[in-house]
Amino acid sequence: MNLIRIGALTLPHKAVFGPMAGFTDAPCRRLMAEHGAGFTVSEMVSSRALTYRDHKTLSLLRPATKGAPYGVQLFGEVPEIMGQAAAMIEGEDFDFLDINMGCPAPKIVSGGAGSRLMLHPELCGEIVAQVKAHTSRPVTVKMRKGWDDEHVTAVECAKACEQAGAALITVHARTRAQMYIPGIDLAVIRAVKQAVQIPVLGNGDIQTPADALTMLRETGCDGVMIARAALGDPWLFERVNAAIEGLPEPPAPNLQARMNAFRRQVEEMVELKGEYTAMPQARAQAIHYMKGLKGAAALRRAACSLTYLSDLDDLIDLVFTAQRKL
User: Fold this and answer.
1) Residues 6+ apart with CB under 8 A from 55
2) Is 55 marked within a binding site?
3) Is 257 helix (H, G, I), strand (E, B) or coil?
4) pTM confidence score
5) Is 83 helix (H, G, I), strand (E, B) or coil?
6) Which positions fall inside the DUS-like FMN-binding domain (predicted)?
7) Cβ-Cβ contacts under 8 Å for 292 (sequence gap 6 or more)
8) Is 204 within 8 Å of 172 (Cβ atoms)?
9) Which residues of the chain have pLDDT under 50?
10) Which pLDDT does position 325 carry in this prediction?
11) Catalytic residue among 103, 157, 161, 221
12) Residue 182: exposed, middle, or buried by beta-carbon count in 10 A (0-12, 13-18, 19+)?
C-alpha cells in the first residue's frame, strides 16, 4: 500500500480527521489520532486575528499529544495577511499549514474567505504562494467543489494551488450552495485527482468503511477525510483503516470503553479551557456519544444540561441505567 506523503511527512494511515469549528480542539484531535487518524487539523484560525496577536485565537493552536501529524488551518482572503499570519506562527508546534477554501459559514464567506475563494482561482494560487513563502512547513488546501452549480471551479483552483506550491489538496465534493445537504459528487474528486500530481483526499458523507472504499475506488483519490461521523466514534478510523489496508474489522468498543473515552475527553477539555468554557462545548460532544444508544433522545436532552464537570458522572450513570432498562 502506497502511503501518502505531504512534503517530507509520511502519513501513517490514509484516513484523516477533518477540522470543524467548535469541535476539533486538542482533546478531540488527541482522541482521533490515538485511534488511527492519519493526521488531524486545528479549528480554523483567522489570519487577521493572528496578526493582531489575539490570545484566544493563539490558544486554538495548542497541539494534541503527538501520534499523528498535526496541521494548523488558516482562513483569510488577503494573500499578504495570510503570509504574515504564517510567519507569526512559525515558532509554534505543528507539522503543516492548511488553508481553508471550503467553509460555507455566512460570517466567513461574507468577508471573502472560505468557500468564497472558489470564485477566484487565481487568488487561491496567490494565497498559497504567500503562505508557502512564509513557512518552512508543507502547505495543504481544503476546498469545495465550487461556489454553486454555475461555478464548479475545483479543478481550476486545485491547479492554481498546486502551481503555487501546495503539497496536498482535500476536496469536499459539494458546492457552497449545497452546504451540507446529503449527496456528494464523486466525479469532481476524480477530476481534481486527474488534474494534479500532488496527493488528493476526498471528503464528504463518509459514515462507514464501505463509504471510504467506494470513494477511493470511484475517484482514484489517495485517501479520505472524515469529520463529523467520527465525533463520539473515534473507532471509525480503526474500522476504515482496516478496510483500506485489507485487514479484519476490529471489534466494536463496549459501552464502558465509549464512556471512558467520553469522560477523558471532557476532563481534558476542562483542564485546557476551564469549566466555564469547556462544559457548554462538552454538551455538543456528548450528544455524539449518545448515537445508537437505547433511549438516545432522552440521553441527548440530558447531555444538553451539562454545566459542571461533576454533572458528567450523572450523565454516564444515566447512560448505563438506560441501557439496562430498555
Assistant:
1) none
2) no
3) helix
4) 0.94
5) helix
6) 19-307
7) none
8) yes
9) none
10) 75
11) 103
12) exposed
Q: Is 228 annotated as a binding residue?
A: yes
- Entry field: residues in the chain: 326
Cell of 239: 474500522
Grid cell locating 167: 503539497
Was 118 annotated as part of a binding site? no
Dihedral of the CA atoms 10, 13, 15, 21 (nearest 10)? -60
Say which amino acid occupies 269: M
Q: In the annotation, is 103 catalytic?
A: yes
Q: What is the pLDDT of residue 64?
A: 63
190 annotated ligand-binding residue: no
172 assigned binding-site residue: yes
Q: What is the pLDDT of residues 163-203, one digit of tens each?
A: 999 999 999 999 999 988 888 999 999 999 999 999 999 99
Residues 243-290 have pLDDT tens digits of: 999 999 999 999 999 999 999 999 999 999 999 999 999 999 999 999
Q: Where are the alpha helices (DSSP H) in 103-234?
A: 106-109, 121-133, 154-164, 186-195, 209-219
- Terminal-residue alpha carbon distance, the chain: 44
